[in-house]
Amino acid sequence: METKNSLMNLAMSRELRAEKSAHPGLTVQEIAKQTGVPVGTLNRVFAKDASQVRDINVTVIAALAKVFDMTPAELVQRAERRAKRMAARMSVESSTTNVIDFEQRRLRGEEDTAADDFDPGADAPED
Question: Would you call 8 exposed, middle or buried from its count of C-beta atoms within 10 A (0-12, 13-18, 19+)?
């Protein structure tokens, strides 16, 4: 897997986690029941640890978008914007190790990424 794709998967995972957090009463088990996506797959999709994030299948993205009352295109666009913000902060090289190292540093508190995880103007329509 290339770094660019790894970054997009990580951004998609973060975006999906943010959507899940916006629905506090919704459990992984309930999402699995609604979508037919196995709990193990969902746990990897919602993983905080970048080393656990795998390629996220387009059918999983579509199913989760429906649960979160959005279109798959909206979800992908949000993830693309997040990936651009993440890429701007890190120098992307040809190895996926950089993405995983970056995420592990973030989890240890070595990177201040609060602004990247929440940008209230990111989803505002452009004039």
Answer: buried
Per-residue pLDDT reduced to its tens digit, 84-126: 888 877 654 444 556 667 777 777 776 544 444 444 444 444 5
Name residues whose C-beta falls within 8 Å of residue 32's C-beta, 6 or more positions apart in sequence.
38, 39, 42
In contact, 42 and 31? CB cutoff 8 Å: yes
pLDDT at 16: 95
User: Which residues, 6 or more positions from 94, have their beta carbon under 8 angstroms from its beta carbon?
Assistant: 2, 3
Produce one character per residue of 30-49: b if its CB has 16 or more CB atoms within 10 Å, e if not.
Answer: ebbeebebeeebbebbbbee
Q: Which domains does the chain have, with CATH numbers?
A: 3-109 (1.10.260.40)
Q: Are 11 and 83 in contact (CB under 8 A)?
A: yes
Residue 105: predicted pLDDT: 75
Taking the model in full, what pTM does it have? Answer: 0.68
Mapped onto helix, strand or coil, the DSSP state of residue 48 is coil
Copy the structure tokens of residue 25. 């009463």
